[in-house]
Design goal:
The chain is mainly alpha-helical and 117 residues long. It has one domain. Helix content is 61%, strand content 0%. It contains seven helices and no strands. Helix 6 packs antiparallel against helix 7. The N terminus is likely disordered.
Length: 117
């Protein structure tokens, strides 16, 4: 994939990647949760997961596995985008000084093929 058209910020790479894959950006889980006026507890109930997982996924602290991704996409009627989740994850890592291109690539690959992780 050619990223030469984008800047050096990881968000630029994610946006370029998402455009190349057909624009599957959408909302991230936290944006969708706020739009729906859900508490983290209600989000956990909607996604049939623990409160801890719902909060960690929404804030980008963790990336949901394949089964959880399907539940998120179903619950949000497709409004939550895979690469919006990834963008939130990069922002979380970057804010804590843990961002690297290797982690970003691993996160993208996990979102593209969760079964391989």
């Amino acid at each position: 994939m050619d990223f030469s058209i984008c800047g050096n910020a990881p968000e630029d790479h994610v946006e370029a990647y998402a455009r190349a894959l057909g624009g599957m950006v959408g909302l991230d889980l936290e944006e969708w949760r706020r739009e729906q006026s859900l508490t983290y507890d209600q989000l956990a109930g909607t996604l049939k997961c623990s409160l801890s997982n719902a909060r960690r996924w929404a804030l980008g602290e963790a990336v949901p596995d394949g089964e959880a991704l399907h539940r998120i996409l179903d619950a949000s009627a497709g409004r939550v985008g895979l690469y919006a989740l990834h963008r939130r994850r990069i922002a979380y890592l970057r804010n804590r000084g843990h961002w690297s291109i290797e982690r970003a690539r691993a996160s993208i690959e996990h979102l593209r093929n969760p079964a391989a992780a």
